[in-house]
Design a protein that fits this description.
This protein is α+β, with helices and mostly antiparallel strands and 215 residues long. It has 2 domains: 3-103, 2-Layer Sandwich (Phosphorylase Kinase, domain 1); 110-209, no CATH class. It is 40% helix and 17% strand. The chain has 9 helices and 7 strands; from the N terminus they run αααβββαββααααββα. The protein has helices at 3-12, 21-26, 30-40, 67-76, 110-117, 121-134, 148-155, 158-170, 203-209, and strands spanning 42-46, 50-54, 59-64, 90-93, 99-103, 183-188, 191-196. The strands form 2 sheets. It has a 5-stranded antiparallel beta sheet. A two-stranded antiparallel ribbon has the order 6-7. Strand 6 and strand 7 form a beta hairpin. The chain is globular, with a radius of gyration of 19 Å. Bound molecules: adenosine-5'-diphosphate (ADP) and magnesium ion. The site of magnesium ion has 3 residues, from loops.
Length: 215
C-alpha cells in the first residue's frame, strides 16, 4: 500500500478529526448531543426515537432524542442479538442508551429487497400481519384470509423463517419490518446480505412508550 492509499484509508475510517468522543459523551442533554453531531457529522436519517449520523464508510452513530430512543438503543446493544445473522452489527454502545455505533447499511429498494430475500416487501408485510393475527385470541373482523399457497410460500422461505424466529425470541413489534427503511444491505464474508437496521422495538418498549390507550 502506498503512502497516499494509507492516508486515504486513515482519513476514511473513524470519526472526522473535528469530532471528539470525549466532548460528545460529556454533553448532558439529548438536544446538546444532537447539536454537536449536527455540527461535526453528516445526518443520514431520523426516526421517532433516534437520529442517525454517518461516522465513516462503515459505521453510523445512532443518537437517542428521547426516552423511546434510549430504550431502543438499549435493546439493539444487547449482546445476544448480535448472534443473529439478521441484525446489523453494533460495535460500541453507551451504557445509558444515549448513543450507539452500528454497521452502516446501504438502503435497499423494492427490487433489491426481493433479490436478496426471495420475497417482496409487500408480501412480507402481509405475512407479518397474518402472523400477528394468528396469535390474537379474539376473532378479528378485518383479518385478511390468506391462501394456503401464500402461507406455504412464505413460511418455507429461509429469510422469513429466520425473521419469524427472531421476532418470537425477542417479542418484537413487527409493523416496521414491512417497510424498506427498516432494512439495509451489508457485506457478510464478502456476500451481500440483508439486515435489520432498526430492531429495538420489543412489545415491552412499545407498551411503555408508543401505546396510546383510547379512553
Ligand atoms: N445502521 C444503519 N445504516 C444506515 N441507515 C440506518 C442505520 N440505522 C438506521 N438507519 C436509518 O435511519 C432511520 C432511523 O433509524 P431507526 O433505527 O429507524 O430509528 P427509530 O427507531 O427512532 O425510528 C432508519 O429508518 C434508516 O433509514
Ligand atoms: Mg424506525
Amino acid at each position: 500500500m502506498d503512502a497516499q492509499c494509507l492516508l486515504n484509508q486513515l482519513v476514511a475510517e473513524g470519526y472526522p478529526a473535528t469530532f471528539s468522543m470525549d466532548e460528545f459523551s460529556r454533553i448532558n442533554s439529548y438536544a446538546g448531543k444532537l447539536r454537536y453531531a449536527d455540527a461535526h457529522l453528516t445526518k443520514l436519517a431520523s426516526g421517532s426515537g433516534r437520529t442517525v449520523y454517518q461516522i465513516d464508510n462503515e459505521k453510523v452513530l445512532k443518537i437517542a432524542k428521547n426516552g423511546k430512543g434510549v430504550a431502543q438503543n438499549q435493546i439493539e446493544a444487547e449482546p445476544f442479538l448480535q448472534k443473529y445473522d439478521l441484525t446489523a452489527r453494533v460495535f460500541e454502545s453507551d451504557s445509558r442508551g444515549l448513543y450507539l455505533e452500528m454497521e452502516l447499511a446501504k438502503k435497499v429498494g423494492r427490487k433489491r429487497f426481493e433479490q436478496l430475500t426471495g420475497v417482496t416487501i409487500e408480501d412480507l408485510a402481509d405475512y407479518l400481519r397474518y402472523e400477528n393475527q394468528r396469535h390474537q385470541v379474539r376473532a378479528c373482523a378485518f383479518c385478511v384470509n390468506h391462501s394456503p399457497e401464500f402461507i406455504a410460500k412464505m413460511s418455507n422461505n429461509e429469510f422469513v423463517g429466520s425473521l419469524s424466529s427472531l421476532n418470537a425470541d425477542y417479542d418484537f413489534k413487527t409493523g416496521d419490518e414491512g417497510r424498506l427503511s427498516t432494512w439495509g444491505e451489508v457485506l457478510r464474508d464478502g456476500q451481500p446480505t440483508i439486515v435489520l437496521v432498526d430492531f429495538g422495538l420489543t412489545t415491552s418498549v412499545y407498551d411503555q412508550f408508543y401505546h396510546v390507550e383510547l379512553k
